[in-house]
Amino acid sequence: MNAKYELEMLALKSDEIDSLYEELERVRTIAEGMGSIGDSEHIQTSARADKLENAVIKIIEIEDKINETIEGYLQDRAMIMDAIMHLDGPAIRRQTIYQKYVKRKTIKMIAKETHYDVGYIRHQCADGVKDIEQSLSG
């Protein structure tokens, strides 16, 4: 198992969830713009009704995809958080891995916030990834 890949995939899943929520908002806005079907329109033959029905179906599909993605994200996050919490070494190693891969901060940002040298933080991150890889594969 490639720990760095798994850690990066966690961030990508988070991005995917954000993207799905944006798409959901866009489709909802389109559906709301279609409005309700008037009494004078026949639902069976109305192109507008078909478009509204398609939009509602799309909304349901997106919501299902969001729920599925969130479920996978939470399972992966729990596994990663457990691995992070069981890292050996200094506490800064756990903090660095958490900040980089869960909070998605850069090495420079972490170094600035923790008042450690960038090289030291980079080293702690690399060691943490190696430790997680051993933990997940063993």
Brief description of this entry?
The protein is mainly α.
Instruction: Look at the structure and name the CATH superfamily.
Output: Winged helix-like DNA-binding domain superfamily/Winged helix DNA-binding domain
- Quote the CATH topology: Arc Repressor Mutant, subunit A
Determine the fraction of residues in helical runs and give it as a percent range: over 70%
Text of the CATH class: Mainly Alpha
End-to-end CA span: 10 Å
- Give the topology string: H per helix, E per strand: HHHHH
Give the low-confidence spans: none
> What's the overall average pLDDT, rounded?
88
Number of domains: 1
CA gyration radius, whole angstroms: 22 Å
CATH architecture field? Orthogonal Bundle
Count the strands? 0
Strand residues, percent:
under 5%
Structural class: mainly alpha
Q: How many DSSP H or I helices?
A: 5
Tell me, briefly, the overall form. elongated
Largest sheet: none
Describe the structure.
This protein has 138 residues and is an all-alpha fold. The protein has a single domain (3-36, 45-137), classed as Arc Repressor Mutant, subunit A (Orthogonal Bundle). 80% of the residues lie in helices and 0% in strands. It has five helices and no strands. The chain has helices at residues 3-34, 47-85, 91-102, 107-114, 118-137. Helix 1 runs antiparallel to helix 2, helix 2 packs antiparallel against helix 3 and helix 3 packs across helix 5. The chain is elongated. It starts with a helix and ends with a helix. The mean pLDDT is 88.
